[in-house]
C-alpha cells in the first residue's frame, strides 16, 4: 500500500485508509478526505512539502506529514 506522499504529480488515486488519530485525523477528514474518495495530485513542492491536491472539486494543500497518513490505491 502506498501513501499519498509517494504518488507522482498528475495521477489520480482512491483513499483506502486514514492512519493517525485524534485532531490530526479529524483535520484531514474535515478537508473532505475520507475512505473511498478520489484524490488528484496536482503538484508537489521540490522538497515534498506541501502536496497540492484536488478533492471533491476543491484545491487543497496538504503537509507532507498529513499526506503520509493517507493510504491510497
Automatic annotation (TrEMBL):
Statement: the UniProt record of this protein carries the keyword Iron-sulfur: no
Keyword Lyase tagged: no
Q: What's one GO MF term for it? A: transition metal ion binding
- Taking every annotated instance into account, which residue ranges of this chain make up the domain Ferrous iron transporter FeoA-like? 2-73
Q: Where are the transmembrane segments?
A: none
Q: Name one Pfam family in it.
A: FeoA
The domain of life is Bacteria
Task: Tell me which SUPFAM superfamilies the record gives.
Answer: C-terminal domain of transcriptional repressors
Tell me the InterPro entries matching this sequence. Answer: Fe-transptr_FeoA-like, FeoA, FeoA_core_dom, Transcriptional_repressor_C
Which UniProt keywords are present, listed alphabetically?
Iron
PANTHER family per UniProt? FE(2+) TRANSPORT PROTEIN A
Identify this protein by name. Answer: Ferrous iron transport protein A
Organism per entry? Eisenbergiella massiliensis
Amino acid at each position: 500500500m502506498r501513501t499519498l506522499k509517494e504518488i507522482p504529480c498528475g495521477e489520480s488515486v482512491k483513499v483506502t485508509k486514514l492512519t493517525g488519530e485524534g485532531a490530526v485525523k479529524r483535520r484531514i477528514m474535515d478537508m473532505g478526505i475520507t475512505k473511498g474518495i478520489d484524490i488528484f495530485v496536482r503538484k508537489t513542492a521540490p522538497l515534498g512539502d506541501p502536496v497540492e491536491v484536488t478533492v471533491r472539486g476543491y484545491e487543497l494543500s496538504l503537509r507532507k506529514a498529513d499526506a503520509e497518513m493517507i493510504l491510497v490505491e
